[in-house]
Design a protein that fits this description.
By secondary structure, this protein is mainly α. The protein folds into 2 domains: 1-123, RNA polymerase sigma factor, region 2, helix turn helix motif (Rna Polymerase Sigma Factor, Chain: A, Orthogonal Bundle), CATH 1.10.1740.10; 125-191, Winged helix-like DNA-binding domain superfamily/Winged helix DNA-binding domain (Arc Repressor Mutant, subunit A, Orthogonal Bundle). The protein contains 9 helices and no strands. The chain has helices spanning 3-33, 37-56, 61-78, 88-105, 107-122, 128-137, 141-152, 157-164, 168-190. The longest helix is centred in the N-terminal third of the chain and has 31 residues, at 3-33. It is globular. It starts with a helix and ends with a helix. 26% of the residues are buried.
Length: 191
């Protein structure tokens, strides 16, 4: 082999591996749509933190976990209607966002807010992490989601891009601008 092909081999292998992962992803979606619960469990394991982060950007902390389950239940029921398996991540993001909107429209939201307010009065003051989360929720939606997926769910920039359908450059810009705005917000709170 020449020096040039030696250098290209890792790139070629990476491209083949990447293509295999995309194929595997689509295969799992098709299998889950056919009723394969193990395949759906794998999709759940891969995307649950993303769905949790998206919901956490929009609903109270104490409700997010229940809504994650609702989102995946909805996805499981409607999966056979998904025409393009490769569209699954974006489709799941849309279900999560819509579920958050539905939560805020429902009467359940009012009861949950009042119950949580009563619970907080009995407990100790909110922790620093809840204060930070509150500050993140004040940011524009694009920054809010990306920051929560990064800071709370521990996802990397490339993982956020892959799972949400955003470009890596958009994720990088959203993280940079969101962190800048978060620092400014937290700076105002400490003064």
């Amino acid at each position: 082999m020449t020096v040039m092909t030696d250098r290209l081999m890792p790139l070629t292998l990476a491209l083949r591996t990447s293509a295999a992962l995309v194929f595997d992803h689509a295969a799992r979606v098709r299998a889950a749509a056919g009723g394969d619960r193990a395949a759906f469990d794998e999709l759940y394991m891969r995307y649950a933190s993303m769905v949790h982060g998206i919901l956490l950007a929009r609903v109270p902390v104490f409700v997010a976990e229940d809504l994650v389950q609702d989102v995946f239940l909805t996805a499981f029921r409607k999966l056979s209607g998904l025409r393009a398996p490769e569209a699954f991540p974006g489709w799941l993001v849309a279900i999560a966002r819509n579920r958050a909107v539905e939560y805020h429209r429902s009467a359940r939201h009012e009861a949950d807010v009042h119950a949580e307010a009563a619970r907080r009065q009995v407990q100790a003051p909110a922790s620093i992490s809840l204060d930070v989360l509150s500050s993140i929720r004040k940011l524009p939606e694009a920054y809010r989601e990306t920051l929560i997926l990064r800071l709370v769910e521990g996802m990397t920039g490339p993982e956020i891009a892959e799972r949400t359908g955003l470009t890596p450059d958009s994720v990088r810009v959203n993280l940079f601008r969101g962190m800048k705005m978060l620092r400014e917000e937290l700076g105002r709170r400490t003064k």
